[in-house]
Every structure is written in C-alpha cells, then in structure tokens.
Amino acid sequence: MKIVSIESLQRSPVRHDIEVTGTHNFVACGVVVHNSNFRAANIAKEVEGEAGQAGFHVGSHRMDFVETPENLYWRAARKYKLDEVLPKGYQIFGEVYGRGVQKLTYDLEDIDVRFFDLMVDTAYAGYAEFVEFCVKHFLPMAPLLHVGPWKKELMVMADGKSQIAKHIREGFVVRPVKERWDHKVGRVILKAVSEEYLTSKNSEEIEAH
C-alpha cells in the first residue's frame, strides 16, 4: 500500500491535559508503542466472572493463548516464571519485543519483555507499587525517561536513540504517577510515537492504525 501523506502528531489539534495539581507524571521509553501487548494473570476464584476464568493465563490484553513452544507470550512468561511470581489476583502487563516480533530487533537474537503496568484484583496499581513489585521479582521494566509535571517541551523525548538498543526510539508513553480517570479519555495513559520512527522503514504504526 502506498503512503500518501504522514501527519505530525505534534501538529495534531487534539490535546489532552494530564496534569493535576500536586501530582506528577512519569514518561516511559522504549518498546511500549507497538502491537505486541503482553498480559499474564493469576485470576482469583472470587473475581473470575469479572476478570476471566480462575487460574494462570498468558496472552495479549484481550485474548488468552494456549501454551506452545513457539508462542512468544508464553516464552516470555516462562522466562520470568510468572506462574510462580504472580500472587492470586495479580495481573502484569508489558510488551514483547525482539527478533521475530517487529522490524526493530532491539539487538536481540531472541525475544524479551518489558513490563509497564500492574493490576491487583480489579484495580491498577500506582507507579510506586508497580516498581516495588518488579524490583522484588527481578522483572525488567520499560525504561524511565522523566518524572515530573507534564509540559509540551517533553515531546522532544519521543525522538532519539532507544534506551535499550542502538537504533532509534519508537516513542514514549506518559501517565500519572497516581492512577487517574478522565471522562473523555478513560484511564489516563497516552502515547506519543516518534516522527523519526513513523517515517522510517521500520515503522509498523501506519499498518496498526
């Protein structure tokens, strides 16, 4: 399919103010902008109707996968022993990346995963709780670029070199340190894709959107 035009995200008329007085936001870099969303869940019996069937599940954010030796999601889950790590009622989210996942290989010969979100029972954990959990269980997190009030000047961080590879950055995700919901956008968690990435031969965002 021929690309007719590319519109800059920075020139988009749609803006969302995610700043709340007295709170800060964190900006995560790296692999959390493509379409290999990862989810591992140890669903408790008490909430199985709302969160899914009780037991350990691996898949994307909306679909569970049957375990096979070739399945990227199950390979990532087994690598970090998530069936042993996740207590009942916990779900962890991330992005699978590396060779065979997307065009950018992140200098890997195999796959890996970077985690960026945690849910306890049916509520998302705050950033501090998420970090504490990952550090305790030696789980790799999406690289952190910035913590503090949001300002438009931070948009320049969408471009540049990846924090975990030699190639370009795909973009960043920004969200409040403390969970917040907005009546227009729902859960406040927003993505900015690198213009350099969008116009490169490695981009898969054109197809994804």
Explain the overall architecture.
The protein has six helices and eleven strands. With 209 residues, it is an alpha+beta fold. It has one domain: 2-Layer Sandwich (D-amino Acid Aminotransferase, Chain A, domain 1), CATH 3.30.470.30. The protein has a five-stranded antiparallel sheet, sandwiched between helices. A hairpin with a 3-residue loop joins strand 9 and strand 10. It starts with 24 loop residues before the first strand and ends with a helix. The C terminus is likely disordered.
Approximate shape? globular
What is the CATH level 1 assignment? Alpha Beta
Strand order of the largest sheet: 3-2-4-5-6
Architecture in CATH?
Answer: 2-Layer Sandwich
Rg estimate, integer Å: 17 Å
CATH topology: D-amino Acid Aminotransferase, Chain A, domain 1
Please tally the β strands and state the result: 11
- Termini Cα gap: 14 Å
Number of domains: 1
Present the secondary structure layout.
Layout (H helix, E strand, L loop, with lengths): L24 E5 L7 E7 L4 H4 L3 E5 L12 H8 L2 H4 L4 E9 L12 E10 L2 E2 L2 H10 L7 E5 L22 E6 L4 E2 L3 E2 L2 E4 L1 H4 L6 H4 L1
Antiparallel strand pairs: 1-7, 1-8, 2-3, 2-4, 4-5, 5-6, 8-11, 9-10
Short account of what is shown:
The chain is an alpha+beta fold. It has helices spanning 48-51, 72-79, 82-85, 127-136, 195-198, 205-208, and strands at 25-29, 37-43, 55-59, 90-98, 111-120, 123-124, 144-148, 171-176, 181-182, 186-187, 190-193. The strands form 3 sheets. A 5-stranded antiparallel β-sheet has the order 3-2-4-5-6, with helices on both faces. A 4-stranded antiparallel β-sheet has the order 7-1-8-11.
